[in-house]
Amino acid sequence: MRFVDLNFRFRWVPTLLLVLSIPLFFGLGFWQIDRAEQKREQARTLDQRTRMPVMELDKPVDDPEVLRFRKLRVRGTFEVAGQILIENRRRGNRIGFHVITPLRILGSDRRVLVNRGWIAAAGDGSPTATPVPEGEVTVTGEAYLPAPPALVLHGGPEVVKGWGRRWPYLTLELYRVATGARIEPIVILQNPDDVGGFLRVWPRELPREDRHIGYAIQWFAFAFITLVLWLRFGLVRSDGTSTA
User: Fold this and answer.
1) Structure confidence by residue, pLDDT tens digits, 27-56
2) How far is it, in rounded angstroms, from Cα 140 to Cα 54?
3) Residue 10 lies in a domain
């Protein structure tokens, strides 16, 4: 048996592709590792804050991030005029609404938005009754920071003024534009045990790192495959023919 002698011949095009792709793949891989560490930190923060005692919301919120996942308690009066409904909220196989009601904090002109829970849509798609408790109430719940969906089709914050009382989604900035109200930079997801609300089931998507670790492995594998292909295209037989 005779083995074919192989030599390596430098080639510009494969080398250029190698130089461009290897740093990209490694950069994306390390970025995913960093994202995994962020998810670990979020999980640690979630665990720590859910174990902390209830915090009284008795002063303005400067940094909403420090309150994320915290259990809050606040006393005030619900304001019917500022109530809105968030459409297309699903529970099982039923479509309904989330009821968002501003609470004027006792002894101040500040408000905090309270998600009082889910109501089902009627047969024609309209919301069912949404009674608002009268007088002073105490609200307890978890601090939540709403964010817009990944794809936003409207043309700017002013369009929210045409939404009326039924909104496709909620952000605090849009609510400020629509109402001019001075609101705290959080939403309270009201506890199921509080009176004066609706169906309150707040599923929490726990931060997971495994998906990002998987993505990182894929990007590093792409870098390895690119290196192997570069070597493959550079190898030639002793008679000058390519092995690729």
Assistant:
1) 999 999 998 888 888 788 777 777 889 999
2) 8
3) no
Task: Quote the pLDDT of residue 1.
Answer: 41
In angstroms, the CA 113 to CA 172 distance is 9
Distance from C-alpha of 228 to C-alpha of 41, rounded to nearest angstrom: 36
How does pLDDT run across 97-135, given as a tens digit for each residue?
999 999 999 999 999 999 999 999 988 888 888 999 999
Q: Does residue 123 belong to any structural domain of this protein?
A: yes
Rg (CA), the chain: 28
Does the predicted TM-score (pTM) go above 0.85? no
Asked whether residue 78 is domain-assigned, the answer is yes
Domain range for 114? 66-190
